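PROTEIN DATA CARD
Card holder: Integrase family protein
Chain length: 407
Origin: Colwellia hornerae
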Amino acid sequence: MSTCKITKSFVDKLVLPEKGQVFYRDSELKGFAVRVTTGGSKAFVLEKRINRKLKRITLGRYPEITVEMARKEALKYLGEIATGIDPIAKRQQAQAEQMTLWQVWQDYRRIKSYLKDKTYVQYEMYLNGELEDWKNKRLVDITKDMISTRHGRLLKSHSPSYANTAMRILSAIYKFAKDQYEDNNGLSLFPHNPVDRLGQIKAWAKEPRRQTVIKPKQFERWYKELQEMKFNTGAESHHVVADYLLFLLLTGLRKNEGATLTWSNVDLEEGTIYIPDTKNKEPLTLPLSDVLVGILNYRLRFKTNEYVFSSRKAKYLAHPEQALKHLCETSDIKFTFHDLRRTFITVAESLDISSYAIKRLVNHKNGSDVTEGYIINNHDRLRAPMQRITDFFKENCKINMDDYVSR
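Structure generated from the sequence above:
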């Protein structure tokens, strides 16, 4: 780095380097310099040790900023540094404070691109819905009082679950900002999460856990109307959804786990299915009972693509809600997709199947149960419990195996 007095005429005469960049240090003001790049850029900088580390602050590009302006800016920064202020951190904080909720969300989505699509859809549903008036607010302008007021308002207009979810989404965005945006000293530019107020004042709403299941006395009627929907409504989607709903009931799978099951993950010779993408991120291999094998053999006759429960529009059964609504109306039994999973677990418990086997069948994590950690439940050991559960449904639903025999 060359040392000389930096003036307008000196900067005008500077020759561009053949490669990289060159610095010319001012002989009068220590740390003041001009940087010249091979691309033709000339910029004023200040180099100074801050917190024992040599830092470089860009003051501005020439000729947008004059030598005199740059020198005054350098003196201002030197004054701040002398009084213990880190001007780089100060500048970063000022820039961060201009970020809006929507801008941080865009960074969240870009950086956390590995999340499931439905997560992004849910976040934007709230950000474009009940939180829309906050989208263009600076993150630093959303206060604890605003959070508690909005949460209270949502509790009056929506369910406790809805209100809590809206706040959890905001909290997740703030936690992301806290971890993502740091100054040059590694300190968070967003250290405070205003959503913490709800925990501090114990304002989170209680969300009653759903307990709905299909009752044993309803099984026969439910299955009868399921078959009626499958063969007599004339809707192609109903034919697929009927098998899909029974499949969920007999496996305890979550809605999307069943809907996205591919033929490549079905082993009819081994009598298993493999679910690679589960809620708890732990892949699941399930043994197949006789009815499940029958359903899969039956669906194989109508194979159109790689999905077991296929759809012409979305390839897999992405939107079975209308068929479920139809079955609820015709059977006069109100249930959800997750109620089928809850019914499966309830029946398994009623058959005195061990809690360890049930947890493996429905892919619940072991938690802190030390004993369970020593028990190895492979799919062969789960085959008998799975068949017992199916046998219960066969008897109570009056399932006719002839309906699933390949012909």
